[in-house]
Amino acid sequence: MLNRKELDPEHSPGAAFGQRLRMLREERGWTQDDLAERMGYSGTHISAVETGRRTPTPRFSHSADKAFGTGDLFERQGRAVRHTALLEGFPDYVAQEVRATEIRLFELGIVPGLLQTPEYAAAITTGAVRRGAITEQQAEERLSLLAARQASLERTPAPMVYAVLDESCIRRPVGGAKVIAAQLDRLAAFAELPSTVLQVAPYDLGERRAFDLPVTLLTLADRSHVAYAESALQGRLERETRLVQPMLTAYHQLQAEARSQTDSVAMISQLRKGAP
């Protein structure tokens, strides 16, 4: 076959999905148009998924399983493809977050996801799409996951959430004046909840700031702790006490150095006065 693109299933989840789709199709002697007719798509769409140029949606994955009689094989593999929009280690962290009794956050540059308004979150993901970092489909999945995570905070009993934001989080303009104004209002409202503590780590903290990267610490029901930290390329969930405990100590030191909640809310309110 001319111009046949060879696939390396080890290259990425998307390549593995496309390779399996092509293999099962060819085993049955079907052309791309034959499979397209069975799945309700075009042959061009099938080709794009097989070669990794298009991300399989949940509907596409379900249709593939139905066409091949593979149970939920493609649905499970499709979820792995779409989760490539998330840093390695983050899905593992989310599974622990929904079980946590206490959540401690430190963030740089942007407001933590759990505290974001829908408009602020959409602006962040739109920026990622424009840079080519993720696809529009991946952006939609990322926003859906964030909404589910935020909803989980309303469980009973609600987890205690401690958030320390570097000053850059509240000063960085995201999404325009109206979006940032609503986001500042959201932070002030968050601080008023009975199960939250909000603090700002000001710029003048300088070298006394305990962390140089975003960090999240979770306390689980059995009082064990896990830590999640990430760089631009990778996230890591840490469970070993000897590694987590120093991070927990550093977080407590950061809370002692950061502004009180009263002063932090006053700082946010002052910024809000300059917004529409």
What would you note in describing this structure?
- This protein has 276 residues and is α/β, with parallel strands linked by helices.
- The protein has 2 domains: 13-84, 434 Repressor (Amino-terminal Domain) (Orthogonal Bundle), CATH 1.10.260; 87-273, Endonuclease, Chain A (2-Layer Sandwich), CATH 3.30.870.
- Helix content is 51%, strand content 12%.
- The protein is built from 12 helices and 6 strands.
- Strands 3-2-1-4-5-6 form a 6-stranded mixed beta sheet, with helices on both faces.
- Strand 4 and strand 5 form a beta hairpin.
- Helix 1 runs antiparallel to helix 5 (73-82), helix 2 crosses helix 3 (43-50) and helix 7 (118-130) packs antiparallel against helix 8 (136-152).
- The longest helix is centred in the middle third of the chain and has 17 residues, at 136-152.
- The model has no long low-confidence stretch (mean pLDDT 89).
Topology:
Elements: H1 13-27, H2 32-39, H3 43-50, H4 58-68, H5 73-82, H6 90-97, E1 102-107, H7 118-130, H8 136-152, E2 160-166, H9 167-171, H10 177-191, E3 196-201, E4 215-219, E5 225-230, E6 235-238, H11 241-257, H12 261-273
Parallel strand pairs: 1-2, 2-3
Antiparallel strand pairs: 1-4, 4-5, 5-6
CATH 2nd-level architecture of the largest domain: 2-Layer Sandwich
Structural class: alpha/beta
Element-level helix/strand string: HHHHHHEHHEHHEEEEHH
Give the helix level as a range of percent.
Answer: 40-55%
Pfam family, one: HTH_31
Protein name: XRE family transcriptional regulator
InterPro entries: Cro/C1-type_HTH, DUF5753, Lambda_DNA-bd_dom_sf
GO molecular function, one term: DNA binding
